[in-house]
Amino acid sequence: MAAEKMALAKAINESLRTALEADPKVLVMGEDVGKLGGVFRVTDGLQKDFGEGRVIDTPLAESGIVGTAIGLALRGYRPVVEIQFDGFVFPAYDQIVTQLAKMHARALGKIKLPVVIRIPYGGGIGAVEHHSESPEALFAHVAGLKVVSPSNASDAYWMMQQAIHSDDPVIFFEPKRRYWDKAEVDPEAIPAPLHKAHVVRAGSDLTLAAYGPMVKVCHDVAAAAQEEGRSLEVLDLRSLSPIDFDTVQASVEKTGRLVVVHEAPVFFGSGAEIAARITERCFYHLEAPVLRVGGYHAPYPPARLEEEYLPGLDRVLDAVDRALAY
């Protein structure tokens, strides 16, 4: 496949197709992933081309889906499981955190579970209750799980490849409101390591660290700040477990300020861990406290109010202003 510009959803589709072609042990399974091609059409055409034995429409039973994937992995398969929406993952939470995450340690390293769990997450699509959650911190807290989230089509393609090749279970959070954002994807490129953060915009006055859906917002914030003569560096974290603290530290040592941005609630969110670690590592370089911007500590609101709930340009710019005022 030659390099081409494609939507993030299409990039994941192409990545799954590549994996299915390369390894007969790779399976795709989940609710409506086959005949329908997924509610976001991410798996469109895969069952037609690879058959019902490899792209499997499952019952509406998340615990059963993940439990079956664990059994398949024990038999040498590499299942890629789709949880149809973020809020649907909780019936499978017990299987994920007490079985999938623990088996490698329980078996003293003799058993590997190469399972990828795809979760479309976040808001911005005007959905109903249970369809716009951001539960990534719940999984990042669990030892034994890798947790990643791409922000663009190129990373989506390559990070999915790397997740499937991993012998450890990977929770793959897909920012659903970015599914239609396009970027260049080169299948012949040499990808960065799965858990490496990227500096996607260089700057000198302050670092913005984000992942998934908020990276685009931080790009917009940096562009707006530039018009006021402020130079903001934007980091795409890409991975939440593990986190590439070395890249964050190097950026903060240069800029002296850090604002962490995510859709999930600020309270006990991933930004808290980043803020604490960077304060420990960069105490003598910081010119201001590490600030966090995210959702409110409240249930996700009805669609007509979600723009008030989600961090946007103004809320992030306000944090930038406060950090630069020190």
UniProtKB/TrEMBL annotation:
Its cofactor is thiamine diphosphate. Its EC number is 1.2.4.4. Keywords: Oxidoreductase. Coiled coil: none annotated. GO terms for biological process: branched-chain amino acid catabolic process; response to nutrient. It comes from the Bacteria. One of its GO terms (molecular function) is branched-chain 2-oxo acid dehydrogenase activity. Residues 6-181 form the Transketolase-like pyrimidine-binding domain. This is 3-methyl-2-oxobutanoate dehydrogenase (2-methylpropanoyl-transferring).
